[in-house]
Amino acid sequence: MSAAILAAHAVTKSFGSTPALRDANLTVTAGEVLAIMGPSGSGKSTLLHCLAGILRPDSGQIVFDGHPLNTMSENNRSLIRRDRFGFVFQFGQLVPELPVLENVMLPLLLRHTSRRVARDAATAVLDRLDLHGLHRRRPGELSGGQAQRVAVARALVNRPTVVFADEPTGSLDSLAGENVMDLLLATAREQNATVVLVTHDARVAACADREVLVRDGEVTDYATVETNKPGDLGTR
Ligand SMILES: Nc1ncnc2c1ncn2[C@@H]1O[C@H](COP(=O)(O)OP(=O)(O)OP(=O)(O)O)[C@@H](O)[C@H]1O
């Protein structure tokens, strides 16, 4: 059995007087593809942002690969985000002025990898995501599905330990969304990456190894909810 790579222990987070997470607990196993489901406003994105070290919880602990993320300095957290994590969001994550190839090279250039090595790695991952021939295009010249595949390529180019994806197919039609998900998951699995995925889409969640449900800021294992409360599954 694989070890835990990421965990939230009794995490709370509020925005002003709005509680977003209340005593949220979650353990993610190395190499696992985990889907986070739940109704709108239930705390899914807040949980993902806390797990990824983007938001600092008010209380509780986030542990990544043995490191307590929430008590770490901002500088060390940003190094972990840069070197160990990849991110795919719903919209607007590519730099519009840069061609596709340069967008995908960026995470490696930020780590001071040489341009030649970064170009070779970006070319390989773009090929894997069926994007050969589009290297010189700007993001504005891509379809929505192509742009999301470029975003996936950029998230995976530095072979992250964990890929965080927040509604990665939310802006796409079902065919394009399926294509992006298939390529994201196949490539992440080839790289032995762990994937933490927020989605509203039950078909997307069905591609995961495990689903959890966030409701009112608390996390429940989907299997437990399914057994105990049939027909009471928020947006499912
Ligand atoms: N930056 C913020 N400022 C104020 N309130 C926020 C902020 N971010 C989230 N919230 C509030 O925290 C709660 C949880 O929001 P969150 O975005 O985590 O939910 P979600 O489950 O991801 O929702 P959705 O599915 O609609 O994206 C909501 O009540 C939301 O209004």
UniProtKB/TrEMBL annotation:
Annotated GO MF terms = ATP binding; ATP hydrolysis activity; transmembrane transporter activity
Which parts of the sequence belong to the ABC transporter domain?
6-235
Give the record's keywords alphabetically: ATP-binding, Nucleotide-binding, Transport
Pfam families from the entry? ABC_tran
* One GO cellular component, as annotated: membrane protein complex
- Cited InterPro entries: AAA+_ATPase, ABC_transporter-like_ATP-bd, ABC_transporter-like_CS, ABC_transpr_LolD-like, MacB-like_ATP-bd, P-loop_NTPase
**PANTHER family for this protein:** ABC TRANSPORTER RELATED (PTHR24220:SF685), IMPORT ATP-BINDING PROTEIN (PTHR24220)
Q: What is this protein called?
A: Putative ABC transport system ATP-binding protein
The record lists the organism as Asanoa ferruginea
